[in-house]
Amino acid sequence: MHVNVVRAVGLFVGAGVCAVSVGWFAAGAQGLQFASALVVCMGVLVYLFGESLALRAMRAHPVGEIERPELYRIVRELATAARQPMPRLYLSPIRSPNAFATGGSPRRAALCCTTGLLRSLDERQLRGVIAHELAHIRAHDTLISSVAATLTATITALTSVALLLPLGESEETDVPNLLSGLMLAVLAPLVAVVVYFGVGRRREFRADEKAAELTGDPEALADALLRLEKGSRDFPLPQGRVLLAAAHLMTTNPFPDGLGCLFAAHPPVHERVERLRALRGKWDLGQ
Length: 287
What we know:
The chain contains 11 helices and 4 strands; from the N terminus they run ααβαβββαααααααα. By secondary structure, it is mainly alpha-helical. It has a 4-stranded mixed β-sheet. A hairpin with a 7-residue loop joins strand 3 (99-102) and strand 4 (110-114). The chain starts with a helix and ends with a helix. Residues 167-176 have low confidence and may be disordered.
């Protein structure tokens, strides 16, 4: 079993234990029952929508080879070179340039590009971004990322209903109910942040390095990352709950400002660029 499969299971179990503990602390037996039901619902959501959450949030649709022959050629060439299955390709009608991969395994993986990405990058840079996403697929990063996205979307959704739930034991006073609701409203985003950091930032460095090795051109990916960062500022995405939950799947953080910074799961772009350019220097010295 791949280590990221174990991490995905551990992430779900950890989130479930945290939810049950908060429910018990907030409202005793009634809160425990509610939290247990919530954990079951989260499991169903992960199973049914874990792989499609980001695709739905980005309004992505399957794209055929006749529609985007150049994209298919690039992905097929890189997937063949990496000796991994060809992922299903999707296109998102979003002007903000970015890409992401999702799926429970390399054989069930999907790769999505935005129209802004295809317009902003030349072929050399596009190959670097696609190689980066293929590296995530090969390392099974997409499984744990999909689980994290679904869990976070579910947990953050609690903030919109927490104050409406009658979690207090007394029906004569609203104070216990209000305190319990406030506790959930405060703790839910904190748990979501923990889930995001559970994904880990080192995976981006690993995927960058593997992409550079696959294409043999670390400078191309470095240039692409800088263009994606600029594009996310020029064409920002709306910071909706589901999009925030899926942000860590993207090649670069699509929310460089505002609330999105709190949920950032990517290393700074300048640090990734420095590492990629240093990698080129190491290769040159080794020749």
